[in-house]
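One-letter codes give the sequence; the integers encode the fold. A sample entry reads:
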Amino acid sequence: MRFFAVGDLQLTDKIPIRRKDNFIDAEFKKLKSIGNLVRENHVDVLFLLGDVFDYSTVSLWFINRIVQEFKLFNVPVYSIVGNHDVAGRVEGVHETALGNLFETGIVKRLSLVQYINGICVRGIDYTTNHNLDLYKADPGDIILSHNMIVPTPFPYTDYLLACDVANIIKKGVVICGHYHIPFEYVNENVKVLNPGVIVRTDITEIDTDPSVLLFNTADQSYKFLSLNSSRGVDVFNTEEYNKDKVDELNLQDFISAIRSTQFQVCDIEATVQRIGKDLNIEDNVIKEVIRRVKIAKVSA
């Protein structure tokens, strides 16, 4: 069986902050690119790794257009459920945009253990109780998971390391979503793969090249295929982002300087103005500090 594994699509009818391109068009171009690659590579099945949608609900016109694009894939499409698909409530998936896709039959829900083209495939939806035991029971030939599996330690508490998952299943393939950065962890008997995010909604994904994973179960070979999307620097407003970062750094430095200064509460605005001028802080940053101070005084 030759299949595609598609990472977090994050489809949305809302324009993300800092995107400067025609975002909606860019989303559907990606779906068309996936369809073209399905046909070019003679793929049998397409698996979606959860977070098909960025929000659990979307406009009717948007879901209808997605249905039409998915029909053009012309291969069976299966999906597991991600946290964004259901706003954290997997049991409520029937009330969501992804649930609508399941209802149409265009996308089939993958859960527990299913045999697809003679291959045992197991889906693990997003869960708040993500642990190694989930990979120990009924591992299957291929496991698809929308949970935090990372190649190296990560600044979150609810993750599993790819090497630990590999040690648990001992033999097979795990393909995961949720973590947006693509990676591959491979040892002699196990492959842990992540194709990464497809629709880049956050500027932190600026360096990600949206790609899909092509896997061949006959010889266990795989490769990542780029969708040839526009470069991150061409779709994100980096100038605005960098300015905001500088302003925030100036703001934090400014606040630190104020904290080290002794003054009467009644003189606070004048003191902020004076320190700001002494430090050559821009007027917009001074005004923001004064605004925050006023809020703090009201809340106190």
